[in-house]
Amino acid sequence: MTSRYDILFYDGSCPLCAREIRTLRKLQSGKLLFADIHEEMAITDQLPSREQLLRRLHLASRTGEWVTGLHANVRAWSHTRFGWLFKPLLWPVIYPVARRVYVFWADKRYDRKYACAMDNKGGVPTENLTCPLNWPAWAKTMYPSNSA
Predict the structure, then answer these.
(1) How many angstroms separate the CA atoms of 44 and 145, rounded?
(2) So where are the chain's domains?
(3) How far, in Å, CA of 11 to CA of 29, rounded?
(4) Strand ranges (DSSP E) for the chain?
(5) Smaller CB count within 10 Å for the chain: N or C?
(6) Alpha-carbon radius of gyration of the chain
(7) pTM assigned to the model
């Protein structure tokens, strides 16, 4: 996949996530698109699984590279005039701590919000998710199914 834009996949039902996305939408330079993973979207081989998208922030770069977690957050903010404030999170001295904080928060958020999609055997995702997880229609054209 190559595009003129980076695409940030986010959890629109997470209040903190939605607030950050609203801010990013206002401040970004126009080269960043947003995909709420709860809107209707076709799952293809080119997209990570819904669980992966819900567990960590994902950004599909315009070159087709996937950036996740803290790196995705820093990359998204690099589309704003405040991007320089986030770059230190990737410095070698700061990154290990920042990454642990991000992973801890992301895991806790996922466990709290999506326990309804887990079975009772150690938190394994079930085939039939009870949480609403649909994909936006525009993504079906951007990520056509390989089985068509």
Answers:
(1) 5
(2) 6-142
(3) 21
(4) 6-10, 32-36, 58-60, 66-68
(5) C
(6) 16
(7) 0.75
